[in-house]
UniProtKB/TrEMBL annotation:
Pfam families noted in UniProt: SecD-TM1
Membrane topology qualifier: Single-pass membrane protein
Lineage summary: Bacteria, Pseudomonadati, Pseudomonadota, Gammaproteobacteria, Enterobacterales
Span of domain SecD export protein N-terminal TM: 4-91
HAMAP family: Modulator_MzrA
Species whose genome carries this gene: Serratia fonticola
Function (record text): Modulates the activity of the EnvZ/OmpR two-component regulatory system, probably by directly modulating EnvZ enzymatic activity and increasing stability of phosphorylated OmpR.
Protein name, per record: Modulator protein MzrA
């Protein structure tokens, strides 16, 4: 029974633990502005040699998925120069699983 519970928990948490997406999120913080056009953002980043996996609207923002952490940082810096004031450009913060997975990995498992 316990092993079944652990297996189910692992299946649910696996996408969070194994997440390797390098994302930026653009949000409007100034009233009256709209989200930048995804194609415009793609063109401007591509001109700078930044490799983009995808750009999609999500909720009230625009999500840019990139190839690597280095590309993510380059894209953030470029977008800060490209976009006018009134936008936030945030690195995607992975949920906490990374921190607690390391904690549990160091602790011995005492089952049964």
């Amino acid at each position: 029974m316990l092993s079944l519970l652990l297996l189910a928990l692992a299946a649910v948490l696996a996408p969070y633990i194994l997440r390797t997406e390098n994302e930026l999120r653009i949000h409007v913080v100034q009233q009256g502005l709209s989200l930048p056009d995804g194609f415009y953002v793609y063109q401007r980043l591509d001109e700078r040699g930044i490799r983009i996996k995808s750009i999609t609207p999500e909720g009230d923002g625009l999500v840019i998925r990139l190839d690597s952490p280095e590309q993510q940082l380059l894209a953030r810096e470029a977008l800060e120069n490209i976009l006018p004031p009134g936008y936030t450009i945030a690195l995607n913060e992975s949920p906490l699983p990374g921190r607690w997975v390391r904690k549990f990995a160091r602790a011995p498992l005492n089952l049964g």
